[in-house]
Specification:
This protein is α/β, with parallel strands linked by helices and 269 residues long. It is built from 10 helices and 8 strands. Strands 1, 2, 3, 4, 5, 6, 7 and 8 form an 8-stranded mixed beta sheet that branches. Strand 1, helix 3 and strand 2 form a beta-alpha-beta unit. Helix 1 packs antiparallel against helix 8 and helix 8 packs across helix 9. It is globular, with a radius of gyration of 18 Å. The mean pLDDT is 95.
């Protein structure tokens, strides 16, 4: 989900969607699940390929889910996922989270996963999410915090990757260390009843390392981030190949371990 003053760093290359399709309500929205009940109206902002969206629709059935993203192209994979699961309770719309085209008090739940780190004005985005959420409802957000990525063994190419990603993301108008800032953004947006938590993903088994490391090895070379880094002069093709090989080397190491922290909020309206 991008805003008027920000560029989406990841883009929609297969290597990016490979990562996003892994996400489920259980591994990416567990902080929200206790607040769901059947019959709710839910808005999923920046739905991506729709795996979390479809999981949430199942949780609130016979409710209704509206899934939005910034372009029709971005919505395409989510439409396919909903059809694959036979979910007719999800509707789709193009929207900008800074100016949602829904009336006030439309939804019982407004959810956004890994969105606020990419938008030009996360406080305005939260104001809009609050506006369209009905009294008594909740706004739930979760964003990673790239500075908390940590791994073993020491891998200089991964240090180079992290520095490059943060520079490219900030040049695009985003904030890659969003997780630690969510609470402050919610307060600035006018929320007064906020529960802030955190949770982590960890990749340490051979299969998990192969998937995560292989995914990033491809993203570094083929995603929009690679194109943006080359176009801006932030990296050379040689740099990107070195980082990609670093990811593959880390993934092949039987001692390899990586974890990353996410900030989470439940904001009551």
């Amino acid at each position: 989900m991008t805003g008027k003053d920000a560029v989406y760093t990841h883009g929609h290359h297969e290597s990016v969607l490979r990562s996003h399709r892994w996400r489920t309500a259980e591994n990416s929205a567990a902080h929200l699940l206790p607040h769901l009940r059947p019959g709710m109206r839910l808005l999923d902002v920046g739905c991506g390929p729709g795996t979390i969206t479809a999981d949430l629709a199942e949780r609130i059935a016979p409710g209704a889910v509206t899934a939005v993203d910034i372009t029709e192209e971005a919505l395409g994979p989510a439409r396919v996922e909903a059809e694959r699961r036979g979910r007719s309770d999800i509707t789709f719309a193009v929207a900008d989270v800074h100016a949602l085209e829904f009336p006030e008090d439309t939804f019982d739940v407004v959810h956004a996963h890994q969105v606020l780190q990419h938008v030009g004005d996360p406080v305005q985005a939260l104001r809009e999410m609050r506006r369209v959420c009905a009294p008594g409802g909740v706004v739930a957000v979760r964003d990673s915090d790239y500075a908390t990525f940590t791994w073993f063994p020491d891998t200089p190419a991964l240090e180079e990757w992290l520095d490059l990603y943060q520079r490219v993301a900030r040049a695009n108008g985003g904030e890659p260390d969003a997780g630690r800032r969510l609470l402050s953004w919610a307060h600035a947006a006018g929320f007064t009843d906020v529960s802030a938590t955190s949770s982590a993903w960890c990749f340490a088994t051979p299969d998990d390392r192969a998937w995560w490391g292989g995914m990033w090895a491809d993203r570094v070379l083929k995603s929009d981030m690679a194109r943006q880094a080359l176009a801006s002069g932030a990296a050379t093709q040689e740099d990107l190949h070195r980082i990609s090989e670093g990811w593959r080397s880390w993934a092949a190491n039987p001692d390899g371990w990586l974890s990353l922290l996410h900030g989470e909020l439940i904001c009551r309206v």
